[in-house]
Write a sequence for this structure.
């Protein structure tokens, strides 16, 4: 979603052209900070003092703020086209910084601890957020900003307009089509069981975007809940655009989760996607899984790729341990499908394409659940192996056109997959759930569609 939010600082004061150059706009040279007015601009937990500002005081080169955040409060995720230096005077917390310049994986927000007497600077235009994570103490910082007045672009989803008493009007202009990000409950911390006797990491890859985040959360929760070694899980999320609020949502729902986010360049698949029978399948991010071997770090040798419309009901370690023999990937394979319905009339009308299946017994594998030897994949030579169908009780979303209700197959189950058009959260929200959707519901951490970020 290209949500564009802009905060503008408007001035109702006219900056006097004749201001003395000894003091700014006739202000005393020395002032008592305790006597400078403070405001919270409608943000709970914030106390903001403009020590020296462009709008209030006519500063042209720098602007200085003193900000205090009460426990648990935070800035919105935002960026601006000026340099910014923070000096932490009191308290402690976290800085999230998504650098577009110098990190190994551009776009991945990094977490930094900040503490009293620490200082940090934000490179121009890097998205960032500061949280007071200390439950007992205020976080107080001096903020120095170059080139005022600053134009702030939040990546968050809140909207408000405030007219502050000091004459600074703070307005946010929002594209009317921006959907709100859902709010999720915080998941419990899952710890390794005493019986966990493996030390290796289990790498799980999924795609991540605001549209499907409702489905992403239950996948993560169900993996952690049924795993003997939840602390060994490492998630690698692929996203096609930079959505720091989505990142923030994962972070606040699973505060203990070990994960990274990687940017997938949609240009890699542009022009290569043929029209399918379901529009949702045409999204570039759907094809990111083909490139995951190049995207995730080179020291990861094996990954499990999972769709966002499923839940695990068994220990994922068992799937991880699948014997790939000398193959590159293992996926559930199906050989009894009626392919007529899988392709559009246009496909069958094309003689060359239509004869693809002549004289063959066609099978397909579901790419929504794959165990991939990424090292072999990088080397080339792609051969696949079937995994037991218990790892993909699929098709519960119904067919690709109507999304009708389907029921479970009478076989053992380790993973339930709502592949197809119907998604359990949509059917539950519209109060027309299928019976199988009640199996998904316990993993839904969804609270409401009111956005989680600052109001
Ligand atoms: C600064 O202002 C505060 C609050 O009004 C006051 O208590 C304090 O005495 C002042 N300090 C000085 C040095 O004037
Ligand atoms: C901050 O640093 C100064 C100078 O080194 C020191 O005097 C002061 O005690 C420090 N404060 C904290 C909270 O560490
Ligand atoms: C780990 O535990 C499982 C059962 O929890 C057991 O079957 C397996 O043999 C154990 N492996 C090692 C190396 O101890
Ligand atoms: C496959 O599906 C098509 C269209 O629904 C139907 O006409 C055809 O008979 C089916 N073929 C088999 C082998 O079931």
């Amino acid at each position: 979603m290209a949500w564009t939010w802009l905060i503008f600082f408007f001035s109702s004061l006219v900056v006097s052209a004749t201001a003395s150059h000894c003091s700014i706009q006739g202000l005393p040279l020395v002032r008592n900070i305790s006597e400078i007015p403070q405001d919270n601009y409608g943000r709970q937990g914030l106390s903001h003092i403009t020590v020296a500002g462009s709008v209030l005081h006519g500063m042209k080169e720098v602007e200085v703020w003193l900000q205090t955040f009460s426990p648990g409060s935070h800035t919105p995720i935002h960026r601006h086209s000026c340099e910014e230096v923070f000096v932490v005077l009191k308290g402690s917390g976290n800085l999230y910084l998504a650098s577009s310049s110098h990190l190994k994986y551009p776009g991945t927000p990094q977490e930094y601890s900040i503490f009293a007497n620490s200082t940090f600077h934000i490179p121009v235009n890097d998205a960032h957020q500061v949280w007071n994570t200390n439950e007992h103490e205020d976080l107080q910082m001096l903020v120095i900003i170059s080139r005022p007045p600053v134009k702030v672009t939040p990546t968050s989803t809140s909207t408000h307009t405030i007219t502050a008493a000091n004459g600074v009007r703070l307005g946010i202009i929002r594209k009317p089509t921006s959907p709100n990000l859902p709010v999720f409950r915080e998941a419990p911390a899952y710890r390794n069981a005493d019986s966990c006797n493996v030390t290796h990491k289990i790498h799980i890859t999924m795609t991540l975007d605001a549209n499907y985040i409702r489905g992403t959360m239950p996948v993560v929760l169900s993996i952690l809940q049924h795993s003997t070694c939840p602390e060994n899980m490492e998630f690698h999320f692929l996203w096609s655009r930079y959505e720091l609020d989505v990142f923030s949502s994962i972070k606040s729902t699973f505060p203990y989760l070990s994960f990274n986010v990687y940017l997938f360049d949609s240009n890699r698949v542009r022009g290569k996607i043929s029209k399918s029978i379901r529009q949702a399948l045409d999204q570039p991010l759907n094809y990111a899984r083909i490139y995951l071997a190049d995207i995730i770090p080179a020291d990861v040798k094996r990954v499990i790729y999972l769709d966002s419309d499923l839940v695990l009901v068994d220990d994922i370690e068992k799937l991880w341990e699948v014997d790939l023999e000398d193959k590159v990937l293992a996926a559930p394979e199906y050989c009894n499908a009626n392919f007529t319905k899988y392709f559009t009339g246009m496909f069958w009308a094309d003689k060359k394409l239509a004869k693809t299946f002549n004289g063959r017994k066609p099978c397909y594998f579901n790419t929504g659940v794959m165990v991939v030897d990424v090292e072999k994949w990088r080397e080339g030579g792609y051969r696949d192996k079937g995994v037991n169908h218990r790892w993909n009780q699929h098709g519960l979303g119904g067919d690709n056109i109507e999304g009708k209700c389907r029921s479970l197959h009478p076989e053992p189950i380790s993973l339930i997959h709502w592949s197809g058009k119907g998604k359990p959260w949509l059917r539950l929200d519209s109060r027309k759930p299928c019976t199988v959707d009640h199996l998904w519901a316990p993993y839904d951490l969804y609270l409401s569609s009111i956005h989680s970020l600052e109001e």
User: Anything to note?
Assistant: Residues 183-446 form a domain with the Spore Coat Polysaccharide Biosynthesis Protein SpsA; Chain A fold (CATH 3.90.550.10). The first helix runs from residue 54 to 57. Residues 1-22, 156-178, 450-455 have pLDDT under 50 and may be disordered.
